[in-house]
Amino acid sequence: QVTMTQSPESLSVTPGEKVTIRCTASSIISSSYVSWYQQKSGQAPKLLIYRASTLASGVPARFSSSGSGTAYTLSISSVEADDAADYYCLQTHSSPLTCSGSKVKGQNKRILA
């Protein structure tokens, strides 16, 4: 089983800051099978990025991702209040499918949760 581990688990940011979330796989996987999801409170998960670096339709350009092997990164170049959400990396390289999540919070209000 491939384990996905994200860091940091929690991060405090203010609007306009750059956010970087790292996802590490326990063994080498093909980048074609790594995707990132955003889940806002009370909503279903939304696909942000697939094949490690391809933005899904309608996703703002402030989101980007890269990686290969065991190391993958999601970046938000200038975080906005509307980005409040949980962020997950998912691997579909091998069964069972596994994912991990990160929480990012603002100083005075929740920016990402």
Automatic annotation (TrEMBL):
Pfam families on file: V-set
Entry keyword annotation includes Transmembrane helix: no
Keywords: Adaptive immunity, Immunity, Immunoglobulin
The Ig-like domain, residue ranges: 1-100
PROSITE patterns per UniProt: IG_LIKE (PS50835)
SUPFAM superfamilies assigned: Immunoglobulin
One term under GO cellular component: plasma membrane
GO biological process per UniProt: adaptive immune response
ATP-binding among keywords: no
Name of the featured protein: Ig-like domain-containing protein
Organism of provenance: Chrysemys picta bellii
